[in-house]
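2024-03-11 09:14:02 DEBUG pipeline.ingest accepted 1 chain
2024-03-11 09:14:02 DEBUG pipeline.ingest length=267
2024-03-11 09:14:03 DEBUG pipeline.predict start
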Amino acid sequence: MRDAEIDRVKRKRPDNLDAYDLVLRAIPHVYVAMPAEAAKALPLLEQSLALEPGYASAHGLMAWCHEILFVRAGLKEGNRVEAIRHARAAITHGRDDATALALGAFVTGMVEHDRVTAIEAFERALALSPSSAFALFLGSAILAYAGDAERAIDWGERALRISPNDRLAYVPYHVMAIAHFLRGRYEEAENCARRAVQYNPGFSIPHCILAAALAKLGRTEDAKRSAIEVLELQPSFSSSGFCTALAVTPALSESLTKAWREVGLPP
């Protein structure tokens, strides 16, 4: 197990080690970041919390599962509500747990759109564990969708220096793709999106960003192929749904939506 993986699961264990084991079994499903796998993780996490109701990291992973289901499986209000509830519980119960704080912060920023609280929680996580690639990975996403492109790139690059071959490396690469796209650096956006796809080909978002970057570069046929891949992975995808769900900053959402419309992705 790599150092970053140890940092990720080395948390304040609950009194009930069965609850801990259930969380470890859920993690591989959550990290895929797509609905079918998140649905497999939920029963494991529910069992964990039944055994240990105050288990902060279990709450954080539950929050992430519901965020995945909300954003990429139909924008159901129930998933949004549950994501926020568990994210807040992760932050409350995880004050001394960098992993739980990062999970709670990520979901709070992504679906509750409370980026002030999210960044404060990320900063607490990094104060507890300055070398936490996990906190930097997830924090970079909040910064990118808020339009803070250069800081998002900085956090993503820092995380990759700490853990260059991490199984979550698709997160900073897709974040850096977004940040470069926002700054009009479309070749860099394409390159980063392709790296994200390599690390997690089943994750729909890098394919979205790749389609947009290729459209901006005038490579329309390649962009349309990426758009088809998006809809195969996430049939419910729509530009407005995605941008609204994540409160994407207007400068980014307008540019993405225009590019996606050109290559046939639903408005």
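2024-03-11 09:14:41 DEBUG pipeline.report Residues 24 and 68 are 18 Å apart (CA to CA).
2024-03-11 09:14:41 DEBUG pipeline.predict end
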